[in-house]
Design goal:
The chain is α/β, with parallel strands linked by helices. It folds into 3 domains: 181 residues, NAD(P)-binding Rossmann-like Domain (Rossmann fold, 3-Layer(aba) Sandwich); 121 residues, no CATH class; 259 residues, Rossmann fold. The protein is built from 20 helices and 19 strands. The protein has an 8-stranded mixed β-sheet with strand order 12-13-15-14-16-17-18-19, with helices on both faces. Strands 3-2-1-4-5-6-10 form a 7-stranded parallel β-sheet, sandwiched between helices. Helix 6 packs across helix 11, helix 12 crosses helix 20 and helix 13 crosses helix 14. The N and C termini lie far apart (54 Å).
């Protein structure tokens, strides 16, 4: 077990490093400005056991890292230092970048010397970046200083910090591992990407249809690495019994990676925007952006610097991978989740969930989940909604103690679109079926509106996996023909203001009155419509629901004991078909969106239905 001091522990990479090292039972001292922020970061990556983690108050920009004399004394006995501090912000100005990187490097190198002189520092791990021009041959103090005036201050200061730490630790005989991640993207399974810089800049440009020409030709690429893979690699380095100084590039070989045009096409497919029709040299794009176009298109010129032609040495990385049985290649099946998670965050900003809920993924859908015992409850939303919109209802249901799975349907929320080739709703049906089959037991499925239709379909496709289906205001007959044109609906959503959205909701009896509409829900739907992916998916679903041939339920196949219907009686836009008379229907004095306007009442009604 190692005793480790780490900076940047609440950051995008650092939080995963801390979680991985805590799981391995190492003793951790984490530099923080806010203990609450560290606790929140640990919660977000699912680290619930903080017993081996000690928060140490300090600041990278202050002398002696802002450490108290008591904490400096405490840290004299650590055997490993991991320096992963500093923001991912390519727009930093020079003085701020100097403070965050060069000044911090000087201070942490000084701390390393103090520890080494006191008890012998076993290992120093420095997280830098794949664009750094320095390598192990530059560890000697006589190495020439790299100076490219075209580099932004963010890059220059990171490079200067890299060289400073290399040379000082080499002179003092401290083993140094320099870890050079490429562009860091989200989790290799869930795709969760809290940091919207990096790849998010490219996703934002594509979703706004600003990438008719990809930045680079067939020889250009954007090296990528998953955040959890960076954490796994650093954790492996900590396990080295006799560490030696080396440099590790965390990226795939160029020949095994998509070219930039292929990557932009993949992004366009997932955000459902226009794909590039050609390419343009990055240097020309950078000139245009630096000439003022960056403000017009909201694309910083510095972002182009990460698109490269170069190949990078990966032998040292592969040796550690082999030794510790790691596979750090980009997971192609997770890329759609990375892209849609970024698309979601670009629309909504940071979203924090209440306890005990966590963002996750099941089968092909992004989920919000809480643990529990007993039969799982799967909750499926309708249009103009998502898992987050039904979270207040789920919070009430969680009190029952069941595991809860709120799913984002394909193309909504954080879920990738299904890309099913059929013209109907089969892609959505298959996604819900796969989610249910991924769980280990029968489920209770509660579906609202379009989600109610999908829940009803599960009674036909996987009846053996359904304990109970609770249909909340299910759409079981075709809706208004005003939604027949998906193009018109999509265009209308693009230019929809919050006030016009509210008027529309009241006109269609989604809510009985303005006071029923939660402000958070109104803002959520308005922000959700910033996404081309969500607008297009919503318009297509509404169009298909307006055509009777796509509503293909067969109630005669349902087991009445498995079905409960909750119906808001003030909804004048929708009606239950006569065939539903054979099933238990509970009338409620609400409008169509009652699970959103009256979440606690909806949860109570579901609970009562489960007892019947």
């Amino acid at each position: 077990m190692s005793s480790i001091f780490i900076t940047g522990g609440s950051g995008f990479i650092g939080r995963r490093v801390v979680a991985a090292l805590a799981k391995a039972k190492h003793r951790l001292y984490v530099l923080v400005r806010s203990e609450a922020r560290l606790a929140e970061a640990m919660k977000e990556v699912g680290c619930s056991d903080m017993s081996s983690i000690t928060a140490v108050r300090g600041d990278l920009t202050k002398p002696s890292l802002g450490l108290s004399p008591e904490d400096r004394q405490l840290l004299r006995n650590v055997d490993t230092i991991i320096h992963a501090g500093g923001p991912m912000d390519i727009l930093l100005q020079e003085e701020e970048a100097r403070q965050l990187f060069v000044h911090a490097a000087q201070e942490i190198a000084g701390l390393a010397k103090t520890v080494h002189d006191s008890s012998g520092l076993r290992h120093f791990i420095h997280v830098v970046g794949f664009k750094s021009p320095y390598s192990d041959r530059d560890n000697d103090s006589h190495a020439p200083t790299y100076d490219d005036r075209s580099d932004p201050p963010y890059e220059k200061m990171k490079f200067e910090a890299d060289l400073l730490i290399r040379q000082k630790l080499h002179a003092w005989g401290i083993p140094l591992s320099v870890v050079n991640p490429s562009v860091v993207i989200g989790d290799s399974y869930t795709g969760i990407t809290e940091q919207t810089g990096g790849l998010g800049i490219l996703v934002n440009a594509v979703r706004r249809n600003l990438m008719a020409l990809a930045p680079g030709g067939p020889d250009y690429w954007l090296p990528l690495v998953h955040a959890d893979h960076v954490a796994a690699f650093i954790s492996a380095l900590v396990e080295e019994a006799n560490p030696v100084s080396d440099t590790y590039y965390l990226l795939d070989d160029k020949r095994n990676s998509p070219g930039i045009t292929e990557l932009v096409r993949l992004i366009a497919r997932e955000v459902r925007a226009a794909a590039p029709i050609g390419s343009i040299p990055p240097r020309l794009i950078k000139k245009l952006l630096n000439a003022g176009a960056d403000k017009l298109v909201q694309l910083p010129g510095q972002s182009v610097d990460f698109i490269v032609q170069s190949e990078f040495p990966t032998a040292s990385k592969r040796a550690i991978e082999t030794k510790y049985d790691l596979n750090l290649s980009v997971n192609e099946s997770a890329l759609p989740f990375v892209i849609t998670d970024l698309d979601y965050r670009l629309s909504h900003g940071a979203v924090r969930l209440p306890e005990p809920f966590r963002f996750h993924r099941r089968a092909g859908l992004a989920t919000i989940e809480s643990e529990g015992s007993g039969i799982p409850i799967v909750i499926v939303h309708g249009t103009f909604s998502s898992s987050l919109a039904l979270l207040p209802m789920a919070q009430s249901l969680a009190k029952l103690g069941h595991p809860i799975y709120l799913a984002d349907l394909p193309g909504f929320g954080r879920s990738p679109y299904h890309h099913h080739k059929g013209s109907g709703l089969q892609g959505f049906e298959r996604a819900v079926e796969e989610l249910i089959r991924s769980l280990d037991s029968k489920v209770i499925i509660a579906g609202h509106s379009f989600g109610g239709y999908l829940a009803a379909k599960m009674l036909e496709t996987v009846p053996d996996r359904i304990e109970k289906a609770v249909l909340l205001q299910p759409v079981l007959e075709s809706i208004s023909s005003r939604y027949r044109s998906s193009f018109r609906t999509q265009t209308g959503l693009q230019f929809l203001s919050k006030s016009s959205l509210m008027r529309k909701m009241l006109q269609t009896k989604s809510f009985d009155n303005a006071e029923e509409i939660p402000e958070s829900y109104l803002s959520y739907v308005h922000n959700e419509c910033k996404s081309t992916r969500v607008r297009k998916t919503t318009a297509e679903v509404m169009s298909r629901l307006s055509r009777p041939e796509h509503i293909t339920v067969h109630p005669a196949r349902w087991n009445p004991k498995q079905v409960a219907i909750l119906w808001g009686t003030t909804d004048t836009e929708h009606a239950l078909p006569r065939s539903m008379d054979a099933f238990r229907v509970t009338p409620l004095p609400y409008a169509h969106q009652f699970p959103i306007s009256h979440p606690e009442a909806a949860a109570r009604s579901i609970q009562m239905a489960l007892k019947q």
